[in-house]
């Protein structure tokens, strides 16, 4: 498919890397203009520089925990491209599956605040900054959710709770912004990205991609019906296009497409997670 987003304008948080950057590239290929928002200014420049059409890519540096930064991004979007049709709420961090029993009380306290501020409040603040323009455009929000929005052990308690919270947020906003704005999510499974951890756990410099690279070639395939661990962000952009495209999904709101290789149909693969305790 191509041209499904012709004339549309999208704002993508966390658009300088991983699935956010892949969605930006795909949206440009579908004839949209995109504004990519991220706290990493140099990577924003790289993504814009590599774009098939840099004139249709605008960058804004900021932090999703800052309402002022997100309002500035919406203002710049409208100044540059005249409208805002699609918000992709996406910037996030992982907890590297740090289980409750491996967190001190102090770590838990600080990491909760950091992870929820980015993963949950960041989505809500972005929606607040964008909804007025989205109502004008009869547009939509697409949230990056996760297998951890539905299942355990895709993170520790902090990440899993944050992604379950995003599922609830998606559903609540689908109700509150209907009928003018559709709100849906793509629940991504594991993919090879530079996903980082929280500063509060000294995991800000750790990259998920490095864990992928460390997997021995003869390691057993992960228990996922459709695929191995080698999924790239570009493999997951189709559901974002589908949900963002008015003509393709005008009757869909409050839904998550689970793009996780079929975790939900695999059955039990392991028992208790705490047998070592
Ligand atoms: N990688 C996976 O396996 C996986 C699986 C399911 C869901 N997800 C979700 O995908 C989303 C994107 O992550 P990714 O895997 O592409 O990782 P990534 O690190 O490659 O991309 C995330 C981007 O968000 C930015 N960001 C982080 N905190 C920010 C902040 N406070 N303000 C502004 N920008 C910030 C980062 O700079 C980075 O560019 C996250 O919500 C993550 O939870 C990832």
Automatic annotation (TrEMBL):
Keywords: Oxidoreductase. InterPro entries: NAD(P)-bd_dom_sf, SDR_fam. Gene3D superfamilies: NAD(P)-binding Rossmann-like Domain. Pfam families: adh_short. The keyword NADP does not apply. GO terms for molecular function: oxidoreductase activity, acting on NAD(P)H, oxygen as acceptor. NCBIfam families: PRK06200.1 (NF004849). Belongs to the short-chain dehydrogenases/reductases (SDR) family. This is 2,3-dihydroxy-2,3-dihydrophenylpropionate dehydrogenase. It comes from Parafrankia irregularis. The lineage of its organism: Bacteria, Bacillati, Actinomycetota, Actinomycetes, Frankiales.
């Amino acid at each position: 498919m191509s041209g499904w987003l012709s004339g549309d304008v999208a704002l993508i948080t966390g658009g300088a890397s991983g699935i956010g950057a892949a969605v930006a590239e795909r949206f440009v290929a579908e004839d949209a203009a995109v504004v990519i928002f991220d706290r990493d200014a140099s990577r924003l420049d790289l993504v814009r520089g590599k774009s098939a059409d840099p004139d249709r890519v605008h960058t804004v540096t900021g932090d999703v925990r800052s309402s002022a930064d997100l309002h500035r991004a919406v203002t710049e979007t409208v100044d540059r491209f005249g409208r805002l049709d699609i918000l992709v709420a996406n910037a996030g961090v992982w907890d590297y599956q740090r289980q409750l029993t491996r967190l001190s009380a102090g770590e838990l306290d600080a990491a909760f605040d950091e992870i929820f501020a980015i993963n949950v409040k960041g989505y809500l603040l972005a929606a607040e900054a964008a909804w007025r323009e989205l109502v004008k455009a009869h547009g939509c929000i697409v949230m990056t959710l996760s297998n951890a929005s539905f299942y355990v052990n895709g993170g520790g308690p902090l990440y899993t709770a944050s992604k379950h919270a995003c599922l609830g947020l998606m559903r609540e906003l689908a109700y509150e912004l209907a009928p003018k704005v559709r709100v849906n999510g793509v629940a991504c499974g594991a993919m090879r990205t530079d996903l980082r951890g929280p500063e509060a756990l000294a995991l800000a410099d750790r990259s998920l991609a490095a864990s992928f690279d460390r997997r021995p070639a003869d390691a057993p395939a992960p228990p996922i019906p459709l695929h191995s661990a080698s999924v790239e962000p570009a493999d997951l952009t189709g559901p974002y296009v589908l949900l963002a495209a008015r003509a393709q999904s005008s009757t869909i709101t409050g839904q998550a497409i689970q793009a996780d290789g079929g975790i939900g149909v695999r059955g039990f693969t392991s028992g208790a997670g705490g047998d070592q305790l």
